[in-house]
Amino acid sequence: MDKKITIAIDGFSSSGKSRMAKKLAKAIGYAYIDTGAMYRAVTLYCLNNNLIDGEVVNVPELEKQLPSIHISFGVNADTGASETYLNGECVELEIREMRVSGKVSYVAAIPAVRRALVAQQQRMGAEKGIVMDGRDIGTVVFPDAEMKVYVDASAETRARRRFDELRAKGNTEVTYEEVLRNVQERDHIDQTRAESPLRKADDALVLDNSHMSLAEQDEWLLAAFRRIIAR
């Protein structure tokens, strides 16, 4: 299949978009770029360098240090999974922790951060043949993407999925109520921020996966891809 397109998958936190984006990319031989991991990596940097106090980010200092924050992706030789690197160090596990989840929306709302990462994402996808997921891929990063998908599910459904995922990874301290509050807070920040708020692109396909199995979601995406690529 010679024709290459850009696939933009947007949606709420914990909607499963990253998992399905990875699966689709592998199935069709495309590169996968997890933009959420990039914002999480910047958030981890802020936490590790005392640039966040509660909900307040030291924006002037972060803007000064942005040029020294380098994010890249590598493939784990043992698992074959993509992993996130912050300034050369693998931080895949750290960026998934609740301490990062609780702060990432504040960092992601900062215009300078968004502009820096959007520019990097556009460079990554310049050659097409990519699947990229996030909050503003189809609206800001790649508004001309040939395939746009907007993933939705109720906050309760997404919180339950996230809670089960954390428990499976050994986190027995977090409660479902804490995860739900985090999901709802992130939804509000993502939808109301001034810079690149989360919204459905006018030409995006809507995938409500509240009551779909993982296999059904994967089949839906692959079928949509085949319809678009055949045009």
**How would you describe the shape?**
globular
What is the averaged pLDDT score? 92
Largest sheet: 5 strands, parallel
- Provide the structure class: alpha/beta
- Count of helical regions: 10
As laid out across the biggest beta sheet, the strand order is 2-8-1-9-10
In the predicted model, the low-confidence regions spanning at least 5 consecutive residues are none
Strand content: 15-25%
Distance between the termini: 13 Å
**Approximate helicity band:** 40-55%
What are the main properties of this structure?
231 residues; 5-stranded parallel β-sheet; 10 helices; 10 strands
Question: Summary?
Answer:
The protein is α/β, with parallel strands linked by helices and 231 residues long.
How would you characterize this protein structure?
This protein is α/β, with parallel strands linked by helices. It has helices at 17-28, 35-48, 59-65, 98-101, 104-108, 111-124, 137-141, 155-168, 176-192, 214-229; strands spanning 6-11, 31-34, 52-53, 56-57, 71-75, 82-86, 89-90, 130-134, 147-152, 205-208. A hairpin with a 2-residue loop joins strand 3 and strand 4. The relative contact order is 0.21. The model has no long low-confidence stretch (mean pLDDT 92).
